[in-house]
Structures are given as C-alpha cells and as structure tokens.
Design a protein that fits this description.
Order of helices and strands: HHHEEH
Shape: elongated
Strand order of the largest sheet: 1-2
Low-confidence stretches: none
Number of strands: 2
Mean pLDDT: 76
Strand content: under 5%
Helix content: 10-25%
C-alpha cells in the first residue's frame, strides 16, 4: 500500500533578506566614525566642565593700584557714606538733577513790594529771631550731612517749596544749629523739650544807600552767610532774588553793615 505523499504547498516561499542590505552604504561605512566623534566631543565637554576656570584678572599688588585705573581702590570706612564704588559707580541719581523751573542768569527778574514782603515773611517763619539759624521745616531721620546736601548743596525746587542753597556746606553737623521746626513729624520725639518766653531782635530793615541809585549795604551780618547766592541766587525766593547773578563778588559793591558786623573786644583787666 503506497504511503501518502505530501503535496507541495501552493504558497510562494520567500527568502529572508539581510537587514544590512536595507541600510545605505555610506551610513554603514561612517557609522563607527560618527560614534567615535560623538563620544570624543562628549568627553571633551565633560573635562572642560569639571575644570576650574582661570581667574579673569591676575592678582594686583597694593603698589600697582595707584598706577592701574581699572582696579578700584579700597574705600575707607569714613568715606563709605559718600563714596561711589562697585560696577555702578558711574551712575548718578541726585535730586539736583531733577527737572524743575530754574531761571537762567540773564532772564529778567520781576520783583514787587508784595513779593518781597512775602519772601521776608516766609524767611522769618522758620527763624526764632533775626540772624538765627532757620529750623528744619520737615521731618528728618538721617544723621549725616550728606542727606541734607542732597537738596541744599545747590538748591532745588520741589513742587511749591524751595530748598535754598546752603552757604556753609563745609560744616557736617547740620543738626547742631538747625533743629526740627515741627517735632510731630518725627515719631520718637513728639513732645516739646522746654517752654520759654525768649524774644529775639527783629529784622533791621532794608540796607541803606549812600545816595539814590547807589548799591544798598548788606542789612544783616555776614557770619555764616558768606555765599550770598544762598538767599539771593537763581534758586531763591522770588522777592529777594538778585537782578545780576553773574556778578560773584558781592562785597565789591555792597558793603557789609559796620554796625551789625562789628565785634566788641574785651577790655583789659585793671
């Protein structure tokens, strides 16, 4: 009995294709080289990343600081309140740089009797008596003259208030003579220290003239008032502004009062 022979399958047989034949030829040639390059770049980046960078500048000796302008000098402790240092040393932010209506030296000056009386009344309002140092009409919290000079070194106009120029900026202890006029603006000092009935001298009046048209004499003492532009300069009360601010030697024409500026010498003891 003949055994059954298997019939050949009618499905077509396929020969497996090598996967390397599907990859382009140039990729197969340079694949190892690309892998080596990527690993090399990674290794170089890792080594550079863990390496400590070199200092930007070499150490500078103390003897070289005066000859190298690019190296800032150390600031003393006493100079720190006014010293400008670090990277933003060139930046300026001063109240004197604010824009305000500042007249020019040759602009016409308008003065009337009413403006003069208003200026004198405002001047007397902040003084206990004539020739007394004016009180500070605002609260203060600073203990250095730098804050005072921010407004009063050249004088500025803030709104409707005039911060006149100080005539003695070389004095650094402002509160030794100028006290707060309104102590209620200071949180820790709301009481009056002492009451008194002292009444000082009033204003002497306008300066006298030797003849009509002559320059008037200075009707007040000049002690601590050597800079006349403090009250009579460009930034001043309109009623007492000078009409010729370009002239700087005031005492060449305006003589000080011999009566007010005189000094009584002590007599010799018998």
């Amino acid at each position: 009995m003949n055994s059954a022979q298997p019939h050949p399958s009618h499905e077509p047989t396929t020969t497996p294709v090598d996967s390397r034949l599907r990859t382009p030829l140039f990729v197969r040639r340079f694949l190892s080289l690309i892998v080596v390059i990527v690993l090399g770049i990674t290794l170089v980046g890792y080594i550079r990343g863990i390496t400590e960078p070199a200092p930007l500048t070499s150490p500078v000796r103390n003897s070289e600081r005066t000859t190298r302008p690019d190296v800032p000098q150390a600031v003393r402790y006493s100079e720190m309140p006014v010293a400008r240092q670090q990277a933003n040393a060139g930046m300026t932010s001063h109240l004197s740089d604010f824009k305000f209506p500042k007249p020019g030296p040759f602009d016409p000056v308008v003065r009337t009797d009413e403006m003069k009386l208003a200026a004198l009344a405002d001047r007397a309002r902040v003084r206990a008596y004539d020739s007394a140092p004016p009180v500070i009409p605002h609260g203060i919290t600073q203990s250095s003259a730098v804050s005072c000079l921010a407004c009063h070194v050249q004088g500025i106009v803030v709104g409707d208030r005039i911060a006149t120029k100080v005539s003695h900026p070389h004095y650094t202890n402002c509160t030794q003579c100028h006290v707060e006029g309104d102590r209620t603006q200071t949180p820790w000092a709301t009481t009056i220290l002492a009451e008194n009935n002292f009444h000082g001298t009033d204003r002497a009046g306008p300066g006298t003239r030797a003849w009509p048209g002559a320059p008037p004499t200075i009707p007040h003492t000049t002690w601590m008032r050597q800079d006349c532009t403090s009250c009579h300069g460009l930034i001043a009360r309109p009623g007492i502004r000078t009409t010729h601010p370009w002239l700087t030697n005031c005492t060449q024409c305006h003589a000080p009062s011999a009566q007010l500026d005189q000094v009584e010498f002590l007599k010799e003891r018998p």
